Amino acid sequence: MGRQVIQNASFFFSPTGTTRRIVKSISQGLALRPRDFDLTLPASRERGVTLERDELLVLAFPVYGGRLPELIKDYFVKLPSGRRPAAAVVVYGNRAYEDALLELYDLCHAKGYEVVGAAAFIGEHAYSQVMGRARPDPADDERARCFGLGVRQTLLSDSFLSDKPILNKGGHRPYRPYPKRLPFTPETSRRCAKCLACVHNCPVGAFIGDDPKKINRDKCIFCAACIKICPEKAKAFVDDDFCDDMAALAAANLERKEPVTFLP
Question: Does 148 reside within a domain?
């Protein structure tokens, strides 16, 4: 018979806008009544959530060092448990998504969700203008729409996804350790016009007061939102060793990677 799902609730964390774009395209493919829960800013993660019966959940998050952002695991505690269909999606910077998709799959199962589809899409790397340059692009948008359509067809067949395909594509348990925190934060040049776009759009409220030059390193998650959003291009990571490492990483990951989708 399949499930009579008429709407989807999309939960996403998107400091640089790439995950948000993928979610929009997936929703177009689903052709259901959408509800968006943008978890990017701190206040959005404090609100309670009520889910409708048999509402499809689309859970989409960026990959940081092969893992989900730690704050996403904390947010999952707020989500209602229960038998609900879910699509698990990660977005990575043309390097590797490693354990992130399996981690998201496991979080869904811990809540009682039945994963009816999973996918890894590509976005421009947060630390590089070379890896995944200008991604997602129109081809990625189309792949995301096709994935959404595939998820809807899976709902009609009332089947769900095993974790075996995800494991076969590189996910492992136990997950890889979280990367060490960087010993610096983005620096601000004299081009700064003090528009405060960086301050108001920081996903963790890491700026001290309203000073765009002062960042609390213990709070910063190094998502590069402040770098990407600055209209004056006044923010950057300038540590020489870090920049050398990123150049080497980019040189090893110039070949275009394509989205990977998993459906039953």
Answer: yes
How do residues 19-78 score in pLDDT, each as one tens digit?
999 999 999 999 999 999 999 999 999 988 889 887 999 999 999 999 999 999 999 999
Number of domains present in the structure of the chain: 2
Q: Is the dihedral of CA 166, 172, 174, 179 positive or negative?
A: negative
- Please tell me the distance from the alpha carbon of residue 141 to that of residue 193, in angstroms, as a whole number: 34
Q: Are 202 and 119 members of one domain?
A: no
Return the residue matching tokens 């989708």. Answer: 261
- The pLDDT of residue 35: 94
Q: What is the average pLDDT value for the chain, to the nearest integer? A: 94
Place of tokens 């009579």: 4
- Residue 107's domain comprises 7-174+257-262
User: In this structure, are 223 and 115 located in the same domain?
Assistant: no
Tokens for 138, please give them: 């129109």
CA angle, 115 then 37 then 225, to 5°: 105
Q: What is the pTM of this model?
A: 0.95
